[in-house]
Amino acid sequence: MASLLPPFFLLLLLLPLPLASSSSYPYGNVSLHIDCGSATDYTDSFNTTWLSDRFFTGGSPSVVSEPLLFRFPPEKNLRSFPPLSSGKKNCYVLPALPSGRYYLRTFTAYDDYDGRSHSPSFDTSVQGTLVFSWRSPWPEKVARRGAYSDLLAFVLDRQAEICFYSIATDSPVIGSLSLIQVDRLSYDAASIGERFILVNYGRLDCGSEQWGPGFTNDTDYFGRSWQSDHDFRSPDSKNNVLVISTRSTISGANQQPNFFPMKLYQTAIMTREGPLDYELEVDAKMDYLLWLHFAEIDSKVSGAGQRVFDVVVNGENLTRVDIYKEVGRFAAHDWHYILKNLSDTTLSVRLEPVVGVPSISGLENYALVPVDLSTDPEQVVAMRALKDSLGVPERMGWNGDPCAPTSWDAWEGVTCHPNKDKTSLIIYQIDLGSQGLKGYISDQINLLSNLEFKLKFFTGYSSIWTWGKCSCAIGFIRQSVHWLNTRQSCFFRYATCAIE
Ligand SMILES: *[C@@H]1O[C@H](CO)[C@@H](O)[C@H](O)[C@H]1NC(C)=O
Ligand SMILES: *[C@@H]1O[C@H](CO)[C@@H](O)[C@H](O)[C@H]1NC(C)=O
Ligand SMILES: *[C@@H]1O[C@H](CO)[C@@H](O)[C@H](O)[C@H]1NC(C)=O
Ligand SMILES: *[C@@H]1O[C@H](CO)[C@@H](O)[C@H](O)[C@H]1NC(C)=O
Ligand SMILES: *[C@@H]1O[C@H](CO)[C@@H](O)[C@H](O)[C@H]1NC(C)=O
């Protein structure tokens, strides 16, 4: 399925900008920033400390070919995962996290760091769910200068697992990773649930330049950055808008659970006349969460009924907005909506005037990516133990979840399928026949005991063991004697036989 998806990423161009206060992530207890490929820690001009590269499973550090093109030091280093030496699948596993919800931002650049003039194809997953698909060739600007992508995901098992999967022997690359804890109930999680990852397809502050942690000194409690809406206005709207702004306090900003920053509401755009149109790129056949932000900051509007407009999305009239009537002046008013199974790759948002001209402060759009099945946790433990005990080499890429995402191949030599009630993935075959591995079978292997499970370690022997069915092969090497002794009980915990 992965290869059918168009590239899933968002370009946040880096613009030089003015400043404000410091302390950018005051919400949660976790704000972790990793400068991938870097050997040293570094504190940037926003007082964010970037940790030297850590928590990765393999790969090698590099630097972009033209460091002067990049404004921020963490963008210049990168880590790549050449599949021939590191395996097809590699991960960052960030440990010891409080259970909760997190904002994850990645920076990805190519800039011909390897001198091959070939931007790579690869996929990225978070918690075993495919979130980004990079396909060669990347747009020129992205390949040269890189791009930020971000999302919101739940981490319920204490570690965040960000994995990269090589396509066609290309080397995945990553420049930096930031993980910031956010409110569990934000973005309507109470009704949407915890089984979705929200992938950013546009987070716009209308009438503003790009700002937010990592780009400016401005504060956003969740670490979100906000892009200018300029490039997303439809051609007709581009020359038909006025920017309005205020320094007044906006009530209702910075409040639980979303902590939308006050700065978001302090600028807005409105049309000179007629409707205001935005066009956002999306991937068809997916569901999107659209969030619109309003505040009446225009001194000419002094009562209800003076600015009224309809929100029309993909031609469908969804709601009527009268900001003043809802919240009065200098107050935040938000509206959100879930769009199901989009049929087109453009999402159009039109503000259609009813009285006066429409105005808007911000707009967010997230793909609602359903969390994929993951491997039964006990089997993950068993497989990791098997990996250690057999000394599975790095080039086999036994990293992250053995089976997930389902759209990727499982660990090399491993075959998985969903369990009966389709709530998790289980392993039903391990074939290491061609790998010539030596080692012993760990005690933990008994965690794999309740399934039909074949293990074949050596080619040249007719030695497929169907453990779950207790029909072990005969005529195997001498250690199988030990095995055969225990076959009746089918308990693998006794099968600690060494393999020659
Ligand atoms: C951060 O840690 C403090 C002290 O352990 C705790 O009281 C607080 O609830 C935590 N905040 C979040 C957002 O988890
Ligand atoms: C951010 O603020 C700090 C001090 O508050 C200042 O030293 C630094 O130059 C500012 N950074 C930028 C990029 O404006
Ligand atoms: C920078 O961060 C450190 C701790 O993270 C803090 O003690 C210090 O006051 C901050 N400096 C500024 C200028 O915000
Ligand atoms: C659009 O929908 C809103 C609420 O659903 C309704 O009040 C309004 O009259 C509709 N506008 C038009 C032009 O039909
Ligand atoms: C999504 O829409 C397409 C047609 O555009 C339809 O074929 C498909 O069944 C729909 N999927 C779901 C899950 O509703």
**Any idea how many domains?**
3
Number of strands: 31
Shape: globular
Which ligands are bound?
A: 2-acetamido-2-deoxy-beta-D-glucopyranose
Report the end-to-end length measured between terminal Cα atoms: 39 Å
Q: What's the number of helices?
A: 8
Task: Walk me through the structure.
The strands form eight sheets. Strands 1, 7, 10, 13, 14, 15, 19, 22 and 25 form a nine-stranded mixed sheet that branches. It is globular and about 75 Å long. It has three domains: 28-182, Galactose-binding lectin (Jelly Rolls); 193-372, Jelly Rolls (Sandwich), CATH 2.60.120; 377-499, Leucine-rich repeat, LRR (right-handed beta-alpha superhelix), CATH 3.80.10. It contains eight helices and 31 strands. It has 500 residues and is mainly β. Bound molecules: 2-acetamido-2-deoxy-beta-D-glucopyranose (NAG) (5 copies).
Primary descriptors:
nine-stranded mixed beta sheet; disordered C terminus; 10% helix; 8 helices; mainly beta; Jelly Rolls; 3 domains; binds 2-acetamido-2-deoxy-beta-D-glucopyranose; 500 residues; four-stranded antiparallel beta sheet; Leucine-rich repeat, LRR (right-handed beta-alpha superhelix)
Task: Summarize the topology.
Layout: E1 31-35, E2 42-43, E3 49-50, E4 60-63, E5 77-80, H1 83-86, E6 89-94, E7 100-108, E8 122-126, E9 129-134, H2 140-145, E10 147-155, E11 160-166, E12 173-174, E13 176-182, H3 189-192, E14 196-205, E15 227-228, H4 235-238, E16 241-245, H5 262-265, E17 267-271, E18 276-281, E19 287-295, E20 308-313, E21 316-321, H6 323-327, E22 332-339, E23 346-355, E24 359-360, E25 362-370, H7 377-390, E26 414-418, E27 425-431, E28 439-440, E29 454-456, E30 465-466, H8 479-486, E31 498-499
Parallel strand pairs: 14-15, 27-29
Antiparallel strand pairs: 1-13, 2-3, 4-5, 5-12, 6-11, 7-10, 7-13, 8-9, 8-11, 10-14, 14-25, 16-17, 17-24, 18-23, 19-22, 19-25, 20-21, 20-23, 26-27, 28-31, 29-30
One 2-acetamido-2-deoxy-beta-D-glucopyranose (NAG) binds near residues 28 and 29.
